[in-house]
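User: I'll paste a sequence; please echo it back and then give the predicted structure.

Assistant: Echoing your sequence first, then the prediction.
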Amino acid sequence: ARTVEAVASTGADVERLGFTERLPVAAADLRGLEGAPVLDSHRRMSVRDVLGVVEASRIEGGNLIVRIKFSRRAEVDPILDDIEDGALRGISLGYQVNAWKDERTAAGRVIRPATRWTPKEVSIVSVPADEGATMSAGVPTIWAMLLQHLEENNVKLPKLERVIVGGSAVPQSM
């Protein structure tokens, strides 16, 4: 099952030295993203830095969603375990900006929206620049317990859009 779905980008502004970078998800050219490498923290010096591959991508609800298939190599197992346990949730994109359109705020701050950009790789990172670029995974038992708690305590999770279930089949009741 070594496959997870993740939010790779929400298009959130990222503060850079001297300007604010903006990568609108709608301006992304996704044609080369399927088959792109999934890296450990943008490292690309060795084939050992490749954790997996992007199997699919789509734009949904203003977010860039990717489906990642992780390698079966033994050294990738602890990373996948941390993702499944929720200890590792950060995603970051390596990309090329094909065109910028500089703007200035009333206060003089430079905003640099990309009018066209191309994702080149997806990285699993400890701290993502886009705080909304995350994943959450767990076995069905964890999600069943969470659902039970939410129902019993009339609690809502309005920002939760997606969960990753692995390890065994999801019961029809979920």
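The chain has a mean pLDDT of 83. Residues 140-152 form the longest helix (13 residues).
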